[in-house]
Design a protein that fits this description.
The protein is rod-shaped, with a radius of gyration of 32 Å. The chain has 7 helices and no strands. The longest helix has 45 residues. By secondary structure, the protein is an all-alpha fold. This is CCHC-type domain-containing protein.
Amino acid sequence: MRNEDNYHKFVTKFLHLAGEANIVKGDYKTDFNNKLSFDLQRMVAVVNAITNTYAEFQKICAQAVHILQTINITQKLKSLQRNESNTFKQNILQAFNSQTSSDTFAIKSSIMKKIMSICPDIQCYYCKKKGHIARNYLMKQKSQQMIIEFTENDATKSSVNLRKK
């Protein structure tokens, strides 16, 4: 069995071939375990050691297959999301690099509108309200402007003090 194979078809085929090959029913569990995929064998190694019958072992294998399939699907979805995210980022960078600085604001605002429509739960870390981000928050922009002004004033005062000395 390979990871992508249908488990229930595999079990049916195994039982059919085991019957045709006249395998002793006591050996079903061992032979069945040997035919499983490596990942599934690793997941059920302990169960193989503690169960006595093929029926018990096969039931637990069916549960493990379901878990393994869920893990594989989740990993595929995550990798697809990463790829889509990377493509989105690359498109944004290309758009920024190809545009003039006057067009940059329009591009940024359209991107932010798209992001806000996709993720409406985004909230401003500055005021904790939803619907905008701190970059677009007017009060933050004003406070940053005040900080810049104070910093510039301090810098000019210190340069004047240095000249006096």
